[in-house]
Amino acid sequence: xxxxxxxxxxxxxxxxxxVGSLSSRDGAIRASVGIKTYPLSDPFAQVNGKNKAxxxxxxxxxxxxxxxxxxxxxxxxxxxxKDFEHILQARGRSPLLY
Length: 98
Prior knowledge:
Blueprint: H1 3-11, E1 14-25, E2 28-39, E3 51-58, E4 62-69, H2 73-90
Antiparallel strand pairs: 1-2, 3-4
């Protein structure tokens, strides 16, 4: 990512974020990490400093967004995965991770 690219995004009212994504389609799980841009009106554009955000979209709950501070990235990720495991168990599916 270059300074010029960031300036171009800012000129268009976009904020770049490093985003991890996990999705399921036709029974296959897909994971990715990359730069995505968000308009200033998106909650992800407002996440700064040590704050982290997670957006979960599901058929059962629609879209849920949680934003908050976390002391350690690994602890935050572990908590998010545990929450995801509980959601899967509640829906009668086996957890992805053991």
